[in-house]
Please model this.
Amino acid sequence: MKKIVLGFITILLLVVITGCSDNASGEKNDKPKKITLDYAYYSPTSLILREFGWVEEEFKKDGIEVEFVLSQGGNKALEFLNSSSADFGSTAITAALLAKEKGSPIESVYVFSEPEWTALVTNKDSEIKSVKDLKGKKVAATLGSEPYFLLLRALNEEGLSSDDVEIINLQHADGAVALSTNQVDAWAGLDPHMAKVELTTGAELFYRNPDFNTYGVLNVRSEFAEEYPDEVERVIKVYEKARKWAIENPQKTAEILAKEASIDIDVALKQLERTDYSNSLPGNEQVEALQSVGEVLQKNNIIDKNADLEKLIDELINSDYANEVVKN
Model:
C-alpha cells in the first residue's frame, strides 16, 4: 500500500512540476477545438480561403475544426466577435475603433485590403450633385459602418452634420434596393452592392474620396489571441497566402467573388478595380487614418469626447502577430 501511495504522490508531483514549467515559459499545450472565422463579400481574400479550404488544411493535422460564418457587414462581424460566435471578424478599421471604444475586447491584427469600397451614391436622374444637396434629404446608411462614417466626414467637410439629413438605417444590400426604388434620395454605398447599381441602373457615385475610405482589417477576440497566439499567426499566414494569390490571379479572384456574392463578373471586376492588396501589415498608416476619423466621430458624439483617442488606437492596432508572418 505504501508503494502505491508513494507512486501516486510521485506522479502527482511530476504533473505539478511540468505544469509549473509550462506556465513559467508562457507556453500552453492546449489548442482550440474549433476556430470560427467570418467571410464577407467586401473581403475577397476571405472568399478565396473558403474556396480552396486553406484554413481547414492548415489546422487539420491538429484536429482543430474550422467554421466560417457570413458577415453581411462590419456591424455583423462585430456582433459575432462580441458574442464569441466568431474568433476572427472582418471590418473596416473605423468600425473596429468604434467597437473598441464601446468596450469590445478585440484587436486589429491584419490588413486584408485598402479598398475604395464606399462612396455616396444617387440615381442617374437625381438632382443631387454634391454633398451640400443632401440637406433635408433621406440617406440610407448602415449605422456603425464604413459608409456611414464616410457620410459623416463628407457632411463635416461641408459644414453640415447628421442632423441636417434624415439617415435611414438599412443593411448595405437593403440600402441599394431602397435607392433603386426611390425610397431614399441617396445612399452611402458599399461594394459589391455599389458596383452592382453603378453598372445595372446607372447610379452615380456623386461623392468619392479615397482618403475617407479607411482599411479593411481582420480582428481577433483578445481572449482568443491571448490564449492561442500561435493560432492567430497561423490564420494570418493563410490570409497572406490568399492575398498573394489574389494579386497574381485577379480574374479568378473576380470569378470567386461573383459566384459567392451572386453578382455578374463585370460587377466583381469593378469592385476589385478599387481594391489594393499591396500592404497587409498594420502600422502608422492605420494609426493616422484612425486619428483623423476619430476626431470627426468625437465631434458627432459617436465616440465620447473625453475618450483618450490615442490610447484607444494603440490598444486596437496590434501588429505583433503579423510582424512574424508578413513579408511584403
